[in-house]
Amino acid sequence: xxxxxxxxxxxxxxxxxxxxxxxxxxxxxxxxxxxxxxxxxxxxxxxxxxxxxxxxxxxxxxxxxxxxxxxxxxxxxxxxxxxxxxxxxxxxxxxxxxxxxxxxxxxxxxxx
Length: 112
Ligand code: 5GP
Ligand code: ZN
Prior knowledge:
Elements: H1 4-9, E1 17-20, E2 24-28, E3 36-42, H2 57-73, E4 80-83, E5 99-103
Antiparallel strand pairs: 1-2, 2-3, 3-5, 4-5
The chain binds guanosine-5'-monophosphate (5GP) and zinc ion (ZN).
The site of zinc ion has 5 residues, from helix 1.
């Protein structure tokens, strides 16, 4: 499978690791949109929110347990935003589901 984020999990492509456990991997976005911009991905390939099922939703639930811990470790005591782009209208560019954690400054009130 030719998936950039699977290659990052496998260390075939280098990344700046923030957190890792048996189900997920978190790393710094290569093109940060905020002082803290971390991507959290499951260690199971599925493309997007549209492919969440009863079989793989435990990965999503686990990621949402990890996000507050990652945010705290990154010093985001003032708050943060979590985004998952799904499909072309949302400009999803990597077809391995991922959750952006953005923070470290006052974010815009606009979400789109
Ligand atoms: P999307 O637009 O699909 O929601 O987000 C994909 C994100 O992956 C983008 O924010 C982009 O900067 C990031 N990205 C793309 N290629 C790489 C890479 O090779 N390494 C890292 N660390 N981030 C990447
Ligand atoms: Zn993948």
